[in-house]
Write a structure and sequence with these properties.
Layout: H1 2-14, E1 30-39, E2 42-47, E3 53-57, E4 61-65, E5 89-94, H2 98-101, E6 103-111, E7 116-125, E8 130-138, E9 150-155, E10 161-165, E11 184-188, E12 210-213, E13 220-223, E14 230-234, E15 241-246, E16 282-284, E17 290-295, E18 308-312, E19 317-324, E20 327-334, E21 342-347, E22 353-357, E23 362-369
Length: 370
């Protein structure tokens, strides 16, 4: 563990203050430009082939933003969502062949106070909204808490879909139970069926969709387009936020091991490591509230190539994680001058970085070289 503590100390010494703009990581500096505003609790963001955007609003609306920044009216055909606590309409991704099939995938909280769950549906994007909506996944068992849905999604290079599912807050023991999909990352075919090569398909009593387990509330999931490496971060309780490299069949420990404490001040577990359980690539104590995750592979900021960008809700900034040969070489706080909670971070097809702010008058921002 000594190397991990040293790496954390080096990152702390290298990190910059969030009290002002720091452009030292970019030759010539950067600037942020508002692309769209007036969005209520925006969450998910996807880039359309025509240069426009799709954005979810947590109360249950899906909007199209044109290439010139015009925010459209709510699109029809969106499923009813459970908007309470941390629930609502969450992430969205486009099918890898979207230009041909127009398929959009939405994750959301489904149900009501006594029974609710993370759900995924897909539909075709038409001129007025979503068409032919079909539910392709619902987490089981249902729960009675309006927290810890996770719901982030990403397509793997083989065309299968990863979906993060939270532990439901009061149901954290389910994260270690392979019969449950709570506290898991699941892997689905694009139609919601289970791929035959999932790691637990042949294990009696296990949920066949499970790809990784031992997670708490993962609100960041990204696949490196250059290497195919899958990164995921998750919220800890009081401390213990984690950044992980996901590998199929692996156990990421929650709640058996953690670097965080319970909100009461008691131990969740006395252990930070255990044989057969994965260690995080890095972790944060105290918590930063990680939200949104992007791997940057654009040409506009070559000095950021291969780095990770993590929204930090608590500190109202974004953390740039400098990766060298797959290891964390440093951490830097950026965009703190905005003074806003960052809900999502995306690397755009135009080479820019995009930020989504978390408020009732939320914005989409584009990061450009000054």
């Amino acid at each position: 563990m000594k190397h991990r503590r040293l790496a954390a100390l080096a990152a702390l010494l290298w990190a910059t203050s969030a009290n002002g703009a720091d452009t030292s990581a970019v030759s010539g500096g950067y600037r942020t430009v508002t692309v769209a505003e007036g969005l209520e609790l925006p969450w998910g963001l996807a880039f359309l082939p025509d240069g426009g955007l799709l954005v979810t609003e947590r109360p249950g609306r899906l909007r199209r933003v044109s290439a010139d920044g015009t925010v459209g009216e709510p699109l029809a055909g969106v499923p009813e969502v459970y908007f309470r606590g941390q629930g609502g309409l969450l992430d969205l991704v486009l099918h890898p062949a979207f230009a041909d099939n127009r398929l959009v995938y939405l994750s959301y909280a489904h149900g009501g106070p006594s029974e609710n769950a993370t759900r995924v549906a897909r539909a075709r994007l038409g001129s007025a909204g979503l068409e032919d909506l079909e539910v392709i996944f619902t987490a089981e068992p249902a729960k009675d808490t309006p927290q810890h849905y996770a719901g982030t999604m990403a397509f793997l290079p083989d065309g299968t879909l990863l979906v993060s599912v939270g532990d439901g807050f009061d149901f954290r023991e389910h994260a270690q139970d392979l019969a449950s999909t709570l506290g898991k990352t699941v892997r689905l075919a694009d139609d919601g069926t289970v791929p035959p090569d999932n790691p637990f398909v042949d294990r009696p009593g296990a949920a066949a969709a499970v790809w990784t387990y031992g997670h708490r509330n993962a609100q960041g999931l990204a696949v490196d387009p250059a290497s195919g490496v899958v990164y995921q971060h998750e919220h800890g309780p009081r401390g213990g936020d984690e950044l992980n490299v996901l590998r199929p069949g692996r156990n990421y420990g929650w709640p058996a091991i953690t670097y965080g404490m319970d909100y009461s001040g008691a131990y969740v577990s006395p252990f930070t490591e255990w044989p057969g359980m994965e260690q995080p690539l890095m972790y944060w104590v105290p918590s930063i509230g990680p939200s949104g995750l992007a791997v940057y592979r654009g040409e506009r900021f070559p000095e950021w190539d291969g780095d990770l960008f993590v929204g930090a809700l608590v500190d109202r900034e974004v953390r740039r994680i400098d990766l060298e040969s797959g290891q964390v070489a440093g951490e830097q706080a950026l965009f703190g001058e905005l003074g806003e909670r960052i809900r999502n971070v995306k690397a755009g097809p135009d080479g820019h970085l995009y930020l989504v702010t978390d408020s009732e008058r939320g914005r989409i921002l584009r990061v450009e070289r000054r």
